[in-house]
């Protein structure tokens, strides 16, 4: 079957044949960095355009349609504008923290890209604790947001940052527990193992109802963790103008904006990997012919298809629901989602021990 | 009283150590829908005190009216509550007619009521969208604007304007109805009834929306009366204050419609009152649209109007509440003194009382349901 592994192997063989091992490694790193940055830039452009088009579709309007064919280059033009704008630092702001914060948020999103498997064997770093790495690193972004809120010397920013802190720390628990339920089923923390364990069906189908509950909780939790509506209290436009990034302008604002969309992509990619089989095509048990036909669609298409479907769902939330209030948000997590996910974890463990899953 | 600089200084000092935080919401802020300035004292996220500061869009309309003739001053009032321009004009026209003792032809009366009710629907539609946006839901705004656009088109055809119509004049209306009027209004009503269900699906029955609204910003009946609240805000607290029912003007006493009241007095009750009022307005329009009497659309009046010496008062029910127009005449061609009793000002005064103890998010929801139009408050 078509696989990106052949390309990566060919590149590696060629590098090892022509350079000393150290230089081969350095060149490999450079290629990986370029690819990651390229992916970042492209994702930013595509996702922002997608959000605007999805929103327009839901709001009975056209959306961007002037720059390029069907407004395809609108986000490129916006990026150009943001690059050329002055990045103001307000008087009274903590200059170091203020300028550092967008980079912290951005670097966290970049780190999260490492363990994602885009296709069979096409993965930056298949470390054996991939899932743990994702949970651990994703919680660091709250530090960047708190830094931004505190350093801005703006009360709206501060309120937004405190909200964001409370929110991300709370929803991390539910997200973590629903990830653990898949780890229990798959029996491994390694991303490639988890994907391979879905060879005969995705976990959302194999894991009965508890897996579906985990999936729903996961989607709710990551929507909250990425500060998306209906949980966008950190930037709550009508309450806090723009929350923690009120004072940011130009490229520094763009980094926050980009990080938000990259975080959505990564959260959805993790959801797709754990629950929907990542790059694994749709396989049903022992239907050999069906599975074989499905294998003809490349893994990259499966991966991006599932991820973008989840991204669409999250955008759908944003353009449908009103925002929650801060206490309702925390009630939802601590009084409903957390007990449900704890109980659900027990059920999943029971299923895994008794081997009841397919 | 504080001076503005003092307030800003205090606000920026903000006693964080004491746990209290003073923030300025406005004059430019996405939730205030205009240049309203609220100085809010917070304890964490909980609101301790709200001080509204007015005057950012004060154009001294009352003073301007004193130098304008009785025909001219009506046009200025379109700029007060710009969402119910027809009803403002109507109130002024009624007051002048009272002084002149002019009998308005029946056709003009019906046209006026039709326009008033269309305005009411348009105003409530815009409020619905804007309020949903205060709660963080953007999509209902566009749905609301789709309905409002249909009304604006109808207005444009007949009055030549979409926002500041200046259509009501002393003695009747300025022009006759456009030939398309009846057809278009009927089409609008059919579409409105079909599409209003979408709002129920998207907003009213949404669990997040209900949680944000129910039990929030409760205004008791006594408080509503003592703050002088009128319109949907007071009716949501159970006060019967619909001017169309208690002091009927034009032909409202011959029409069949209900005064909508709720008893809860919370944000959700205010929301429901307005939504149900839209249905009542549609009902009134349905009763009248096929029964517009033939005849003159304007009574014969003199070219230069002179009100006899005395004081004249008229009141109408706008989309936001009771609008009173009080004219003192010395017998000349311009009013000696004119005073507008605007609904928004009294409704805003209740904000501090009902939003105290809530969260910032509650304040936005409560302010949204008060349906504030800032030029109406400041004039």
Describe this structure in words.
- The complex is a heterodimer of chains A (358) and B (379).
- Chain A has 358 residues and is mainly α.
- Chain A has one domain (85-354).
- Chain A is built from 15 helices and 2 strands.
- Chain A has a two-stranded antiparallel ribbon with strand order 1-2.
- In chain A, β1 (117-119) and β2 (122-123) form a beta hairpin.
- Chain A starts with a helix and ends with a helix.
- With 379 residues, chain B is α+β, with helices and mostly antiparallel strands.
- Chain B has 2 domains: 4-53, no CATH class; 61-378, Orthogonal Bundle (Cytochrome-c3 Hydrogenase, chain B).
- Chain B has a 3-stranded antiparallel beta sheet with strand order 1-2-3. In chain B, strands 6-7-8 form a 3-stranded antiparallel beta sheet.
- In chain B, a hairpin with a 7-residue loop joins β7 and β8.
- In chain B, α4 (85-100) packs antiparallel against α5 (106-134) and α5 (106-134) runs antiparallel to α15.
- Chain A binds chain B through residues 55, 58-61, 155-156, 159, 163, 229-230, 232-233, 236-241, 319-328, and chain B through 14, 21, 23, 29-31, 45, 132-139, 141-143, 146, 202-203, 206, 208-209, 211-212, 359-364.
């Amino acid at each position: 079957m078509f696989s990106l592994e052949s390309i990566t192997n060919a590149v590696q063989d060629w590098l090892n044949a022509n350079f000393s091992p150290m230089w081969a490694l350095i060149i490999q790193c450079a290629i990986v960095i370029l690819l990651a940055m390229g992916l970042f830039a492209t994702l930013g452009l595509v996702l922002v355009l997608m959000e605007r088009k999805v929103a327009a579709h839901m709001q009975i309007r056209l959306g961007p349609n002037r720059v390029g064919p069907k407004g395809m280059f609108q986000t490129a033009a916006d990026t150009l504008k943001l690059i050329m704008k002055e990045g103001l630092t307000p008087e009274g702001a903590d200059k170091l923290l203020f300028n550092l914060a967008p980079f912290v948020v951005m670097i966290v999103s970049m780190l999260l890209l490492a363990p994602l498997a885009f296709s069979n064997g096409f993965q930056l770093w298949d470390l054996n604790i991939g899932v743990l790495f994702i949970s651990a690193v994703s919680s660091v972004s709250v530090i960047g947001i708190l830094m931004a809120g505190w350093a801005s010397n703006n009360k709206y920013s501060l309120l937004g940052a405190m909200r964001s802190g409370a929110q991300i720390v709370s929803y991390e628990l539910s997200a973590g527990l629903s990830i653990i339920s898949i780890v229990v089923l798959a029996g491994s923390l390694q991303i490639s193992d988890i994907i391979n364990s879905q060879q005969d069906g995705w976990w959302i189908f194999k894991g009965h109802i508890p897996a579906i509950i985990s999936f729903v909780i996961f989607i709710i939790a990551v929507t909250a963790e990425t500060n998306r509506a209906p949980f966008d209290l950190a930037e709550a436009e009508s309450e806090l103008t723009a929350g923690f990034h009120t004072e940011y302008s130009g490229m520094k604002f763009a980094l926050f904006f980009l990080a938000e969309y990259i975080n959505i992509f990564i959260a959805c990619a993790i959801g797709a990997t754990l629950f929907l089989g990542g790059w694994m095509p749709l396989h049903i048990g022992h239907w050999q012919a069906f599975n074989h036909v499905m294998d003809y669609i490349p893994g990259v298409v499966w991966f991006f298809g599932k991820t973008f479907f989840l991204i669409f769902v999250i955008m759908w939330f944003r353009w449908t629901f009103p925002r929650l209030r801060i206490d309702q948000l925390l009630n939802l997590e601590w009084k409903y989602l957390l007990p449900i996910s704890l109980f659900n974890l027990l059920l999943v463990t029971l299923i895994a021990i008794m081997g009841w899953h397919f | 009283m504080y001076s503005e600089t003092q307030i800003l200084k205090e606000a920026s000092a903000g006693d964080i150590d004491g746990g209290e935080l003073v923030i300025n919401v406005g004059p430019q802020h996405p939730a205030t829908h205009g240049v309203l300035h609220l100085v809010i004292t917070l304890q964490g996220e909980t609101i301790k005190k709200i001080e509204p500061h007015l005057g950012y869009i004060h154009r001294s309309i009352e003073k301007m009216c004193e130098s304008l003739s009785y025909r001219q001053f009506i046009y200025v009032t379109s700029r007060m509550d710009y969402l119910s321009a027809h009803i403002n004009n109507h109130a002024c026209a009624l007051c002048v007619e009272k002084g002149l003792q002019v009998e308005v032809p029946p056709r003009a009366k019906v046209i006026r009521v039709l326009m008033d009710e269309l305005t009411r629907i348009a105003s409530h539609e815009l409020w619905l969208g804007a309020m949903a946006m205060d709660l963080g839901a953007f999509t209902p705004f566009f749905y609301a604007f789709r309905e409002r656009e249909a009304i604006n088109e109808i207005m444009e055809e007949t009055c030549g304007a979409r926002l500041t119509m200046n259509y009501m004049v002393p003695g009747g209306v300025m022009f006759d109805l456009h030939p398309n009027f009846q057809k278009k209004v009927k089409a609008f009503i059919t579409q409105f009834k079909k599409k209003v269900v979408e709002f129920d699906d998207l907003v009213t029955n949404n669990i997040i929306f209900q949680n944000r609204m129910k039990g929030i910003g409760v205004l008791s009946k006594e408080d509503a009366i003592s703050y002088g609240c009128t319109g949907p805000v007071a009716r949501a607290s159970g006060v019967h204050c619909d001017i169309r029912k208690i002091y009927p003007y034009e032909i409202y006493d011959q029409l069949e419609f209900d005064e909508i009241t709720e008893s809860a007095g919370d944000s959700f009750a205010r929301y429901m009152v307005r939504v149900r009022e839209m249905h009542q307005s549609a009902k009134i329009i349905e009763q009248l649209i096929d029964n517009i009497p033939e005849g003159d659309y304007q009574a014969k009046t003199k070219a230069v109007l002179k009100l006899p010496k005395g004081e004249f008062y008229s009141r109408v029910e706008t989309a936001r509440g009771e609008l009173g127009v009080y004219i003192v005449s010395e017998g000349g061609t311009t009013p000696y003194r004119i005073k507008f009793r605007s609904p928004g000002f009294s409704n805003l005064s209740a904000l501090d009382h009902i939003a105290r103890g809530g969260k910032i998010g509650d304040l936005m929801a409560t302010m949204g349901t008060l349906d504030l139009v800032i030029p109406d408050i400041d004039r």
